[in-house]
What does this fold into?
Amino acid sequence: MRSARRKGALQHNDSFNASGNNLDVIRQIECCSAMLPGALIRALGGFALVTSNKILNIMENTKSTSSKTNSHQVASEGRSFVESELRKLGAGLVTSEGTRKVYLQASNSDHSRTVQIQVKTKRKGNWHSKTDEAEAIETPPNPKDVRKFWVFVDLSGGRKYWVVPDWWIRNDIHEAHQAYLDKHGGRRAKTLDSNHHSIDEKRLEQWQDKWETLGIFG
It folds into this structure.
């Protein structure tokens, strides 16, 4: 009879779902504990603890991977919308280049002028940049000589665009970061070695929908 109870308990144990919720595993162990010897209960308890830790690790890794994937998806979506907008406005050719950092190349109808575009996309909050991208510009270049631009895309409600010359945004990042450091005694207020820099819409107000700045239409 004792053998039959062990057999029944082991059959019940076969229904455990190790990939399920941690509490479900523990409840299933408690449910059949009355039918199991003490040694086997302790063994299953250890199994549940190890399984729980593994599940938590998997969940954390999945969350991190999902966050990175979502970020890449948003960036890719933004580039696709910019490509579509460029073609709609009359760009002669639009291509992409790069692997880790992807840029768009767009030219006018006769291919006499080609510009490089870095796309920054967000769904909420501010755009993310780095202080490494800052550069102090004393004299603005001739607009005809400018071949590098940033296009900021906001997908939070419909689609909005800001078309900004590369030299301007780099100088703006420099000035904004310097003002921040001056405000906090020449250093970051919290993370001293961080190079993160956020850009809000107010700083780009003058560049909204300024596609003509690219100089490749008409």
In short: Confidence is low (pLDDT under 50) at residues 4-23, 62-66. Helices lie at 2-13, 22-32, 38-89, 166-183.
